[in-house]
Automatic annotation (TrEMBL):
<keyword id="KW-1133">Transmembrane helix</keyword>
<dbReference type="InterPro" id="IPR058581">
    <property type="entry name" value="TM_HPP"/>
</dbReference>
<keyword id="KW-0812">Transmembrane</keyword>
<protein>
    <recommendedName>
        <fullName>HPP transmembrane region domain-containing protein</fullName>
    </recommendedName>
</protein>
<dbReference type="InterPro" id="IPR007065">
    <property type="entry name" value="HPP"/>
</dbReference>
<dbReference type="Pfam" id="PF04982">
    <property type="entry name" value="TM_HPP"/>
</dbReference>
<feature type="transmembrane region" description="Helical">
    <location>
        <begin position="18"/>
        <end position="38"/>
    </location>
</feature>
<feature type="transmembrane region" description="Helical">
    <location>
        <begin position="136"/>
        <end position="161"/>
    </location>
</feature>
<feature type="domain" description="HPP transmembrane region">
    <location>
        <begin position="13"/>
        <end position="167"/>
    </location>
</feature>
<feature type="transmembrane region" description="Helical">
    <location>
        <begin position="93"/>
        <end position="110"/>
    </location>
</feature>
<keyword id="KW-0472">Membrane</keyword>
């Protein structure tokens, strides 16, 4: 039932939760004061979208949707689109729907996807007389000013806690030499859970998604290794890494050299998959593009060679 409802069990400490709440309090208190000074009684509509932003920048400070460009760019671009739709489209329902859809597309293409930005676009269309009188000034005051205040407060509040400094660039370690990194490790879900606990900050990804990312990255690295080093070896078995009926394993049974590496030929036997037991040929380059990784048979199962 918890999986169906999407209830995620995160391992964020009580201190982390309290810091997020305090940051949200400071940020929104300032946003309310600014908004009321510019649009008066229509301010609650503006504050609503900024409240959603506060959840992101204070509770998920390292999320991609929480970073400075999505925060500021998402709100400003969405506000600009919302005001434009309000002025050009007479029908309020159509203008509101168009504003939100265009804001989503614009944030995607400008790489500043920020969900609360869509609420800002909607507010620009249906926000009332106070926002209507401001016109395009609404983009600068209070939207840009509010986003800047949230950004400033997020930087200050998170700075005092080394594990959650904001923006994420302040947290990135120095590049590590690839030779010093462990390769081809078998990680369990327990290993990934442990790693997430040690970070002690809400991360919008589950251990299952993280395991899938690791598996795909490992698979890609092994494929690139095959393609770059031309390590297709005579007598060895290779798989295409597909699933179900598309899964296939081939054994290299003969090879011919050529001056041009792309023209070197390989003869292989299909061990598992469509056209099983048939013998076929292709160039070494074509085989490397097909192969995802080398495999070997262990008792009654096939395993990735590491």
């Amino acid at each position: 039932m918890s999986d169906f409802l999407g209830i995620e069990f995160n391992w964020v400490s009580h201190l982390e939760k309290i810091i997020s709440a305090i940051g949200g309090f400071i940020g929104i208190w300032l946003v309310i004061a600014i908004s009321y000074s510019f649009v008066g009684h229509d301010a609650p509509l503006i504050v609503a979208s900024m409240g959603a932003s506060a959840v992101l920048v204070f509770a998920v400070p390292h999320g991609s949707l929480s970073q400075p460009w999505p925060l500021v760019g998402g709100h400003v671009i969405s506000a600009l689109i919302g005001i434009t739709c309000f002025k050009l489209v007479p029908n309020a329902f159509l203008a509101a729907a168009l504003a939100v859809s265009l804001a989503i597309a614009a944030m995607y293409y400008l790489r500043c996807l920020h969900p609360p930005g869509a609420a800002t676009a909607l507010t620009a269309v249906m926000g009332g007389n106070g926002i209507e009188l401001l016109g395009y000034q609404f983009v600068i005051t209070p939207v840009l000013l509010n986003a800047a205040v949230l950004l400033f407060v997020a930087i200050i509040v998170n700075y005092f806690f080394s594990w959650r400094r904001y923006p994420i660039n302040f947290m990135r370690p120095q590049p590590t030499s690839p030779s010093s990194l462990p390769t081809q490790l078998d990680l369990s879900y327990q290993d990934l859970e442990y790693a997430l606990k040690q970070i002690d900050s809400f991360i919008d990804i589950t251990e299952y998604e993280l395991a899938k990312i690791y598996a795909l990255a490992t698979q890609h690295a092994m494929k690139m290794s095959l393609q770059s080093s031309h390590t297709i070896k005579l007598g060895c078995y290779y798989s295409n890494g597909q699933y179900g009926n598309h899964w296939s394993i081939r054994q290299v049974i003969a090879e011919s050299s050529a001056n041009d590496q792309k023209k070197a030929m390989i003869t292989y036997k299909i061990i598992i998959g469509q056209r099983r037991r048939q013998i076929e040929s292709c160039t070494q380059e074509e085989f490397a593009n097909w192969a995802q990784y080398e495999v070997y048979q262990d008792e009654n199962s096939w395993r990735i060679y590491k």
